[in-house]
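Render this sequence as a predicted structure.
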Amino acid sequence: MKVYDLQDKEGRNFAFEVPNSFIGRSEVARIVGAIPGATLVRKPKMFSFVSEEEFCEWEINGVHFKAWEPFGDNSRFWIGPNPVRWTSEIQVVRHAFLQHRPFWGFFKWIAMAAVLVAVVVSLFAVWRR
């Protein structure tokens, strides 16, 4: 998976972003949950994209992390420590996301488009009666 590193003034990666076009909020929680030593503190709720910018929290070696979608409609999820600072544990989290290969990928969007077309066709058929 592609990650976009965020660096501090010293040039250290303190956080990163991942595109949310191929993974969803629950998949972020699954990736984090598979990291050895990670403890999920909060998972995304159903329909969290409607009401929550910050949707997942976890701890690794006592360092608290969060995942959030700035402004609730960004094209990327922000992944990093809370409070924001450099910590060596970010490399473990970053590595987990780099190794992840989304199952759905492009096919997720095709499936969603097919469902949308089916709904529109059904509504049109009902309307014509």
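Summary. Residues 4-102 form one domain. Helices lie at 25-33, 48-51, 90-99, 106-128.
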